[in-house]
Design goal:
Strand content: 15-25%
Number of domains: 4
Radius of gyration: 42 Å
CATH class of the largest domain: Mainly Beta
Helix content: 25-40%
Number of strands: 32
CATH superfamily of the largest domain: DNA gyrase/topoisomerase IV, subunit A, C-terminal
Distance between the termini: 79 Å
Strand order of the largest sheet: 14-9-8-17
Shape: elongated
CATH topology of the largest domain: Neuraminidase
Largest sheet: 4 strands, mixed
Length: 731
């Protein structure tokens, strides 16, 4: 019983190889990655079903009918099939050249929330463009295979007459790889393909301007990025929205957006900026899309420059977005990352094979016809004999053998003759048919001549490309803007600057309050037993530095911290700055230019003098370790732009006054400082402050000429005042 295992021991590598790898390859090869004809299997099965249903030339039918029929080739859920159909319709606008002519509500690719109607309410048929997909399907141009249950045949590829792979966008996520193919203008692609047929090294940048998206917009043209996409198939494409300013209603109407975003994403992004006061020019934003097309309306404040505002929004919202190209395509069953050039060359090779198979099929068809007419030609010599043989043959089964024996023809020819109606067994009819022989011979010779010449085949491909471009080509939807034309809005310009006041409390709470708000309500709300230790007026574009008791300096932009009201507790800095549990903010500094210096006083009586620009970094580092000396615990910090008189007080009631110029400036942040106050054993430095902020009646009494010094004892009257001051602070 113990030997009856309910599991099999197997190496993880063997498990992956036997179970996971087949699944991964199935997803890559049979689901997520398009092939050289521009289609994934799901697309191909659906379109082929519609073709077999007669929807290329016939009237529209309910989408539900198409979904049901497609299940014979694609045994997935009806919703999965319908969603595939939706994306290929004109109504959805996901494709630059839709394959499906549609009627009804199919949602919009540019809307996240605009849902498509149920399949029973919508109608579809194949678009005229699909003649370029199916026109050569019955000429043995591609292979056919059994469907999943062997009851039907389906094509492995479509014999497309133009590079559909680059004319319509295609996205897919496989196991370990993905594809993200953008769309290009059909006319440009056809012209580029023709050029590559003549010269594989052709400079495609002269022909293909940039991607062309179904949602329009403006491509920010970068020659380097575009060349990378052409040669490697990878690279970014920046696309921004189109807009116009409605002066009468003082609003901006956005009518085309990047292919990679939605109106809802834009609205959410702009709304967030308004809520956080990062954009103050916007009054309202709403979706006014209707039957006329996309329309996103932004109401703006009076006297706002719409162009300046849009330049800000381009930098801060999906109104400008990036399409990341990744041209992964299945070539002969193998996924390959190819650039535009190589993709077109692969398509040319594929098209040549299709053309050769088509020509061979046409030769075979004409040769079969010629063979039949050769037999008919022999009958012409003696029509009466043929009639006699048929009339005098007693059984139906002997008609064919007798005709074969009588005229020296084969079974195929005899069957053809036997099927001719009696009324057509006349000289006129037979002469008319036989007259085709010479034309057939000439056609066969011409076809064989073409089949044997790659040059002629390529010329036929080029001619067809010109026809397709002329018949189905459209003007570019996406405009171009060269990178040097783009107005670059610096981050500093996007920050709304205004006067404010900042507060730091003893419990490390921080408040940033606009002066306008502070004037209307100035009573500060604080936690019990908490009190304000620093406050200063500044403006929103400044940098702020927080000094902690753990030799750490935290830096951030003042505008990154949210505004608050006096009636709130403010922001708890340990949470915002991700401080340690036992860490506390000791001091804050606000600066525009990092001028001035910081004085750090330590319990051992040392003071270090560090220039503020030592904390200025090129990168936006938020946390600087070893920001000051570690020889002893930090007592006090003073920031100043110029030297000043400072007072130091020890725990044994001694004080001294010096000018900060007596302390040498050190560029190393972790400098341990110089000994300023000489301390007795067991005594520590208790405080350091500006003399102007002390309660000393005669500060000169405590001034020393040289350091280090012990300093005189504090006078009785100064001690009383100092004790009263300390008592008030604790209260």
């Amino acid at each position: 019983m113990a030997d009856n295992k309910l599991y099999i021991e197997q190496k993880i590598s063997e498990t992956l190889e036997s179970n996971y790898m087949p699944y991964a390859m199935s997803v890559i090869v049979s689901r997520a990655i398009p092939e050289i004809d521009g289609f994934k299997p799901s697309h191909r099965k659906l379109l082929y079903t519609m073709y077999k249903m007669g929807l290329l030339n016939g009237p529209r039918t309910k989408s539900a009918n198409v979904v049901g029929e497609t299940m014979k080739l694609n045994p997935h859920g009806d919703m999965a099939i319908y969603e595939t159909l939706v994306r290929m319709t004109k109504g959805n606008e996901a494709l630059l050249h839709p394959y499906v002519d549609s009627k009804g509500s199919f949602g919009k690719v540019y809307s996240r929330d605009m849902a498509f109607a149920a399949a029973r309410y919508t109608e579809v048929k194949l678009d005229k463009l699909c003649t370029e997909l199916f026109g050569e399907l019955d000429k043995d141009t591609v292979d056919f295979v059994d469907n999943y249950d062997g009851t039907m045949k389906e094509p492995t590829l479509f014999p497309v007459t133009f590079p559909t792979i680059l004319v319509n966008s295609n996205q897919g996520l496989a196991v370990g790889m993905a594809t993200n193919i953008c769309s290009f203008n059909l006319v440009e692609i056809c012209e580029a393909t023709s050029a590559l047929i003549d010269n594989p090294e052709e400079n495609l940048l002269k022909i293909i301007k940039a991607p062309d998206f179904s949602t329009g917009g403006i491509v920010i043209y970068n020659k380097k990025d575009m060349n990378r996409i052409i040669e490697t198939g990878k690279g970014p494409i920046k696309v921004r929205s189109k807009y116009k300013y409605d002066k009468k209603n003082n609003c901006i109407d956005v009518y085309e957006i990047p292919y990679t975003t939605t109106v809802e994403a834009i609205i959410d992004s702009v709304s967030d900026l308004v809520k956080t006061n990062k954009i103050k020019e916007v009054v309202d934003i709403r979706d006014e899309t209707d039957l006329k097309g996309l329309k996103l309306t932004i109401d703006i404040k009076r006297n706002t420059n719409p162009d300046d505002l849009m330049n800000k929004l381009y930098m801060m919202t999906p109104l400008q977005d990036t399409f990341s190209c990744n041209f992964n395509v299945l070539i002969k069953g193998k996924p390959q990352l190819l650039g535009v050039r190589q993709l077109l060359l692969e398509w040319i090779e594929f098209r040549i094979v299709c053309m050769k198979r088509k020509l061979a099929n046409e030769i075979k068809t004409k040769e079969n016809r010629l063979h039949l007419l050769r037999g008919l030609e022999k009958i012409l010599l003696d029509i009466d004999k043929a009639i006699k043989i048929i009339r005098e043959t007693e059984t139906d089964a002997l008609v064919i053998p007798n005709l074969m024996w009588g005229f020296g023809i084969d079974e195929i020819q005899a069957n053809f003759i036997a099927e001719i109606k009696l009324r057509n067994l006349n000289k006129e009819y037979i002469l008319d048919k036989v007259s085709e022989i010479e034309n057939l011979i000439n056609d066969i010779n011409d076809l064989k001549d073409t089949l044997g010449s790659d040059k002629k085949i390529k010329e036929l491909i080029k001619t067809k490309l010109q026809e397709v471009a002329k018949k189905h080509g459209k003007p570019r939807r996406t405009d171009l803007m060269h990178e040097d034309e783009v107005v670059v809005v610096e981050e500093e310009e996007m920050i709304d600057d205004y006067n404010l006041k900042v507060f730091l409390t003893n419990d490390s709470y921080f408040k940033k309050i606009p002066l306008v708000s502070l004037r209307s309500a100035s009573d500060q709300k604080l936690k019990d037993e908490d009190f304000i230790v620093q406050e200063m007026e500044w403006h929103n574009k400044s940098d702020i530095i927080f000094v902690s008791n753990k030799q750490v300096v935290y830096k951030c932009k003042l505008h990154e911290l949210p505004d608050c009201k006096a009636s709130s507790l403010g922001e708890y800095l340990p949470n915002i700055l991700e401080m340690d549990d036992d860490e506390k903010i000791h001091y804050m500094i606000v600066t525009d230019n990092y001028a001035g210096f910081i004085l750090f006083a330590y319990e051992n009586g040392k003071v270090s003098k560090i220039p503020l620009n030592s904390y200025e970094t090129k990168t936006n580092r938020r946390k600087l370790l070893n920001a000051y000396g570690s020889s002893a615990p930090l007592v006090d910090v003073i920031f100043t732009h110029e030297d000043l008189d400072i007072a130091l007080v020890s725990s044994n009631d001694r004080a001294l006054v010096i000018n900060s110029s007596m302390i040498p400036l050190k560029t190393t942040r972790s400098s341990q400082g110089v000994q300023v106050m000489r301390l007795r054993k067991g005594c520590v430095l208790q405080s350091m402050m500006k003399v102007s902020e002390t309660s000393f009646k005669e500060p000169k009494v405590y001034r020393v000429k040289n350091i280090p010094a012990a300093g005189p004892f504090i006078k009785a009257h100064d001690r009383e005042i100092q004790q009263m001051s300390l008592l008030n602070e604790t209260e």
